[in-house]
Amino acid sequence: QVQLVESGGGLVQAGGSLRLSCAASGIISSINAMGWYRQAPGKQRELVAAIRSGGSTNYADSVKGRFTISRGNAKNTVYLQMNSLKPEDTAVYYCNSAITTILAPGLEVEYWGQGTQVTVSS
């Protein structure tokens, strides 16, 4: 019913930049929030950044000042601009969205993308 498709991961040297993209598609009535999580090997999945429908954002302390989350003009896309990358940013990054579908307009459901690998070499 709803799909989140990520792109933009890869291998980069420390200090470099990457831009992740996520596009939501399907029988969407409204998208209430979109965000990025990451999971490194042996660690729990953690919130990296999130943006709400009104435009407010929040970031993990570890990425503040280096990462920027934004939404596309169509509002069904979200981007994560990652600058000054560090080896500790290495993880699988997952797109997440709170979506209300046309089939159930009163019900907000959380959806996840398949994940994209980001590897930062030292």
Largest sheet: 7 strands, mixed
Indicate the mean pLDDT. 95
Tell me the radius of gyration. 14 Å
- Which parts are unreliable, with pLDDT below 50 for 5 consecutive residues or more? none
Structural class: mainly beta
DSSP summary, beta strand count: 11
Distance between the termini: 41 Å
What portion of residues belong to β-strands? over 45%
- Give the CA-based shape: elongated
Helix content: under 10%
H/E series? EEEEEEEEEEE
Query: How many helices?
Result: 0
Quick synopsis:
This protein has 122 residues and is an all-beta fold.
What does this structure look like?
By secondary structure, this protein is mostly beta strands. The protein has no helices and eleven strands. The N and C termini lie far apart (41 Å).
